[in-house]
Amino acid sequence: MAHTLEVLAIEHDRARIRYVPRAYNGPVVLFRAGKQISGLMADSALGWKEVLTGELTVREIPGHQETMLMEPNVSYLAKEIREQIQAVSTVV
Q1: Rounded Cα distance, 83 and 79, in Å
Q2: Looking at the domain assignment, is residue 7 inside a domain?
Q3: pLDDT recorded at residue 47
Q4: pLDDT tens, the chain, 92 aa long
Q5: Is residue 65 in a domain?
Q6: Maximum CA pair distance of the chain?
Q7: What whole-number distance in Å separates Cα of residue 33 and Cα of residue 66?
Q8: 16 belongs to a structural domain
Q9: Which of 23, 24, 59, 61 is the most buried (most CB within 10 A)?
């Protein structure tokens, strides 16, 4: 199993190095953790502004990356996702 995970990690690295993102001009909602890792100097869009040319909406979810999908934060995230879906549904 360890060998398989190592080979998989190597292939992921190769794919990441070869990948060239293209610009995306559509609307995007970014859900990000309200608390960022100490020392991480990320912009509010977590680096996505480089490839997004359309409207970007950032929604902060309480907690860290590790706790966004745990209660009570996941309930807040679900509420935010529901609101975004409803907003898009009323436009269509």
Answers
A1: 6
A2: no
A3: 85
A4: 788 999 999 999 999 999 998 999 999 999 999 888 777 767 888 888 889 999 999 999 999 988 999 999 999 999 999 999 999 888 65
A5: yes
A6: 50
A7: 9
A8: no
A9: 61
Say how far apart CA 12 and CA 91 lie, in whole Å: 38
Which residues constitute the domain of residue 70?
Answer: 22-91
pTM reported for the whole predicted model: 0.72
Rounded distance, CA 88 to CA 82, Å? 10
Place of tokens 């960022």: 36
Locate 47 and state its tokens: 């680096």
CB 58 within 8 A of CB 45: yes
What is the C-alpha to C-alpha distance for residues 35 and 61, in angstroms, rounded to an integer?
Answer: 9
How many domains does the chain divide into? Answer: 1
Return the structure tokens found at 84.
Answer: 């975004």
Q: Which residue has the tokens 């040319």?
A: 53
Question: Can you point out the beta strands (E) in the chain?
Answer: 28-33, 56-61
- Token readout for 14 is 């190769």
